[in-house]
């Protein structure tokens, strides 16, 4: 296929990239699925398309209809871009802690933005709950209706990964994949890829890479949802078992501090030219940990979730890093992404 029929046809079929330093260091083949090459520059384009297609198939979304979602940004960008060719509008509820770049991109993609204070899920004013109520209200007033994408508990999200990301990884490795590891926002990627790979080979090891501040490492190792610490990564760090996570195959779990993940993001840019966001650092750190568990000679796949320019004002800003007591690489100190 040399000519793609519009934006929707450019989502997915991303390359699998051998991560040189991580592979050499561990004696394993560590491969990153280049989801930052999707048209919206993140893995969430797949979920956005899956959710929209599912709603259209069910007849809940008609032309002119509104898609409402609570999102850390990437899902909203995916929804807004995919909505355009179908003639839908998007209303995005976003916590005010998310990067300015993501908010700017959302507006550029035509989304109406509703910024809310970042409060825990237990609070009725949490962005996810606000988006659900807003969708209900708009469904009553919008002439062509409104739906709540509900990425956390709408399993059309993980189905997109069962149908596309997982099978792509299987085909690209010709079935020679020993382990898969990634972090969780909604759990769609983790559970969907895990399920797709396990269905093809039950001995594949599926491992969670959890940032500090999330509760899933504790859940999968002790059965208790408990969290400690915090992370500057965005889009990941879950405190509950979402519908997308239910029945996810989990063989192992790792807890990855920012001090381990963030330097990997810098290394990947400096030495391999891969410009990625913080969650990709957590994932690559998880892949290195899984490689150490399995020993040399194994093939391990992880997700390179989104493009790094989305975080220039934070992750690639020396002043911000210093404020979080994170080390600043010498090259970034010499040429900061934003003026000091
Ligand atoms: N990384 C980034 C940057 C994200 O935005 C997200 C989605 N929130 C994820 C990882 C996690 O993906 P998922 O929702 O499929 O768990």
Number of domains: 2
CATH class of the largest domain: Alpha Beta
- What's the mean pLDDT score? 96
Helix content: 40-55%
The distinct ligands, each listed once, are: 4'-deoxy-4'-aminopyridoxal-5'-phosphate
User: Count the helices. How many?
Assistant: 12
Care to count the β-strands?
A: 10
Helix-strand sequence: EHEHEHEHEHEHEHEHEHHEHH
- What CATH calls the topology of the largest domain is Rossmann fold
**Basic shape:** globular
CATH architecture of the largest domain: 3-Layer(aba) Sandwich
Structural class by SSE content: alpha/beta
Radius of gyration: 19 Å
Strand content: 15-25%
**How far apart, in Å, are the first and last alpha carbons?**
46 Å
Topology:
Blueprint lengths: L15 E3 L1 H7 L2 E6 L9 H15 L7 E5 L3 H13 L2 E7 L4 H9 L3 E5 L10 H15 L4 E3 L7 H17 L6 E4 L5 H13 L4 E7 L4 H7 L29 E5 L1 H15 L5 H17 L4 E6 L13 H6 L6 H5 L6
Parallel strand pairs: 2-10, 3-4, 3-6, 4-5, 7-8, 7-10, 8-9
Antiparallel strand pairs: 1-2
């Amino acid at each position: 296929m040399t000519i793609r029929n519009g934006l929707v046809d450019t989502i997915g079929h991303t390359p699998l990239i051998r991560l040189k330093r991580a592979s050499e260091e561990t004696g394993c083949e560590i491969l990153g699925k280049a989801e930052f090459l999707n048209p919206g520059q993140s893995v969430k384009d797949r979920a956005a398309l899956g959710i929209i297609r599912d709603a259209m198939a069910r007849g809940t979304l008609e032309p002119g209809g509104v898609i409402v979602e609570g999102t850390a940004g990437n899902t909203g960008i995916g929804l807004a871009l995919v909505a355009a060719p179908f003639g839908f509008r998007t209303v995005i509820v976003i916590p005010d802690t998310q990067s300015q770049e993501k908010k700017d991109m959302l507006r550029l993609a035509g989304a109406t933005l509703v910024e809310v204070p970042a409060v825990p899920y237990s609070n009725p004013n949490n962005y996810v709950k606000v988006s659900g109520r807003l969708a209900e209200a708009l469904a009553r007033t919008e002439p062509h209706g409104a739906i709540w994408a509900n990425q956390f508990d709408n399993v059309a999200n993980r189905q997109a990964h069962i149908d596309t990301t997982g099978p792509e990884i299987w085909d690209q490795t010709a079935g020679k994949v020993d382990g898969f590891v990634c972090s969780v926002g909604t759990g769609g990627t983790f559970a969907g890829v895990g399920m797709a790979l396990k269905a093809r080979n039950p001995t594949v090891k599926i491992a969670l890479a959890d940032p500090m501040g999330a509760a899933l490492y504790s859940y999968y190792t002790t059965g208790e949802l408990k969290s400690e610490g915090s992370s500057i990564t965005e889009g990941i760090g879950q405190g509950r078992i979402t519908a997308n996570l239910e029945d996810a195959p989990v063989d192992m779990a790792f807890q990855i501090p920012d001090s381990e993940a963030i330097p990997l993001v810098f290394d990947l840019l400096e030495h391999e030219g891969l410009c990625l966001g913080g969650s990709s650092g957590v994932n690559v750190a998880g892949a290195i940990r899984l490689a150490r568990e399995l020993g040399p000679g194994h093939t391990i796949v992880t997700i390179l979730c989104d493009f790094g320019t989305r975080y220039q004002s934070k992750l690639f800003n020396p002043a911000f890093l210093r404020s979080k007591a994170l080390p600043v690489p010498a090259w970034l100190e010499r040429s900061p992404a934003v003026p000091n």
